[in-house]
Specification:
With 314 residues, this protein is α/β, with parallel strands linked by helices. The protein has eleven helices and 14 strands. A five-stranded parallel β-sheet has the order 3-2-1-4-5, sandwiched between helices. A five-stranded antiparallel β-sheet has the order 12-11-10-13-14.
Length: 314
């Protein structure tokens, strides 16, 4: 007799207590998931989220060859149906190993591997966006640094969480940054208000959620204080970006980061749940997280991406 699976495993979720609580809450609205347990897997033995989860597991580091197989073992032994990664390098690793989870009948909440790669590679994403008329900061070739207008923003060509990113105010600072890291890309520096849009693309390729919020306090690339807002220009660019990626095959949650000042530009796209997506989930009365779980068990969800509450604060 086939075992019934209904539990949820959040990977690299050690500090995201709110995600654990809200996933457990919305799971109770879904008949096939009612009574589901929410587990946390992390490389640390004790985590804040683990104290609120129904169980926690210490796993190898993401780069460890045994990491995906250890998650498969946990899913098999603890009746896990849905796997939810929360950070970019985890999304990249697990989507590349999707067949392991498919064989185990586990739904991985993440994009196709080629979308994860497109969003992770800053050069590729910039070229892709420019071809589609999506505003992004202009990239500056290393050979053009002497003639560039400063300041410039330097960041790893393949990176996440603002690790290694810095402002270069002079050509000497840019050249020094190059010496310190060979993998940097340079782009025009955009200053202004930082926004994030938490979105969702359903299995039919339609954007059903697009909640815009101001990033009022950011630490290590993650929003620690945020507020939902109605900003038509920002919403339009975020929605266009999500729809364009949906056209390339993206399905599932997505986070678009935008700066608006003298110029407006998309500065990053993460095909996963954002760190402050629990605020967007609240703003949609649970529709964001509920949609993720419903589609993971085979349903198709629909919704108006403009339908969310403004003025909620995290």
């Amino acid at each position: 007799m086939k075992r019934e699976r209904r539990n949820i495993l959040v990977t690299c979720g050690g500090k995201w207590v709110g995600h654990i609580l809200q996933l457990r809450e919305v799971a109770q609205r879904i008949d096939t998931l009612r009574g589901a347990k929410v587990f946390v897997a992390d490389c640390q033995p004790i985590t804040p989220a683990g104290q609120f989860a129904d169980g926690s597991f210490q796993v190898p580091a993401i780069a460890d060859a045994a990491y995906p197989q250890e998650l498969v073992r946990i899913c098999r032994n603890h009746d896990v149906k849905i796997l939810v990664p929360l950070i970019d390098i985890d999304v990249q690793r697990l989507t590349a190993s999707r067949e392991l989870f498919v064989a185990e009948d586990v739904a991985l909440v993440g994009p196709p591997a080629h979308i994860a790669e497109l969003c992770f590679d800053k050069r590729c994403f910039s070229r892709w966006a420019e071809k589609r008329g999506i505003p992004v900061p202009k990239m500056i070739d290393s050979m053009a640094l002497d003639a560039a207008t400063y300041p410039l923003f330097a960041k790893p060509a393949r990176g996440f969480g603002s690790i290694g990113a810095k402002i270069c105010r002079t050509v000497d600072e840019a050249r020094q940054a190059e010496k310190e890291r060979a993998d940097l890309v340079f782009e025009e520096y955009l200053s202004g208000t930082e926004y994030s849009a938490d979105g969702y693309v359903n299995r039919a390729g339609t954007c059903t959620v697009c909640v815009v919020r101001v990033r009022e306090k950011v630490v290590g690339g993650e929003a620690y204080r945020s507020r939902t807002v109605q900003e038509p220009e920002v919403f339009h660019v975020a929605y266009r970006t999500i729809e364009a990626l949906a056209g390339e095959g993206h399905r599932g949650p997505i986070n678009v980061q935008i700066i608006r000042g003298d110029k407006l530009g998309v500065i990053d796209v993460n095909p996963r749940l954002g760190s402050a997506s629990l605020l967007s989930n609240q703003a949609t009365d649970g529709r964001l997280f509920e949609g993720i779980l419903r589609e993971a068990v085979g349903e198709t969800v629909w919704g108006d991406p403009t339908d969310y509450r403004v003025g909620l604060q995290l």
